[in-house]
Amino acid sequence: MFSKEQISLYDQSLGRVTLVGAGPGDPELITVRGQRALREAEVVIYDDLANPELLKLCPTARAIYVGKRAGRHCVPQEETTALLVAEAQAGHHVVRLKGGDPLMFGRGGEEAHALAAAGIPCEIVPGVTAAIAAGAAAGVPLTHRDHASAVVFVTGHECAKAETRVDWAALAKTGATLCIYMGARRLPQIAAALTAGGLRESTPVAVVTNASLPTQEVRVATLGSAGELAPTILGKPALIIVGEVVRLAEVLTQASALAVPASGVVELANVA
Predict the structure, then answer these.
(1) Where is the Tetrapyrrole methylase domain (predicted)?
(2) Model confidence over 175-210: pLDDT tens digits?
(3) Phi, psi of 112 (to 5 degrees)
(4) Among 59, 85, 128, 183, which is 20 to 30 Å from 189 by CA?
(5) Catalytic site residue 101?
């Protein structure tokens, strides 16, 4: 990839792309650098998880929606990638605005690779990823000296064309906090695989939907009862946190200034 300094050496008439992480949802959680990129953009290509309020930062830019959510694909990824290349080759500064961090389960790596192959300068602006935001929103410290010294980010939804590469049994033995992206539809199967791998059914689970937004919801259960949460979170952006650190959620959400907004839903089951 190209650094910002390297990109500045290019003839700007050739066009360029900036992959910007929009953060978890709250428009105030985008970085200052991300805001600047939006203000400089001529074309903004954005998806479902990027808050449309951010488009107010670039009122003169041409905005193109390419959202996709489980079961609802507006624009295939191949078309989105081709669009990025075409707009840059037309001489535009293109901002690809992606929810969370552009390189964390957002296909930003695929897009950056395609841009590099086409010889198009590409800068990457990181963003607050969903796991970090969901942990803060739910009052769950993802690491804690008494409970977890490692964190694993893992997808609960892999490409349908490939065999699963996630070894849930191995993850169950790590003692790490597990942050599961895109796992709402498979929550019962994931919970069963983790218990089969050795985690106790009493292991606490937090599910955070719409993290950082006024519609945020936090529900805490156990692996043994996690399947019951699945119907309540389908169709919503959800992050699943599994591990002993979840036991701290009730205390921390009550004591912290970053507690769940009053408009959100908080269901803290007894997981002691």
Answers:
(1) 16-225
(2) 999 999 999 999 999 999 999 999 999 999 999 999
(3) -65, -40
(4) 128
(5) no
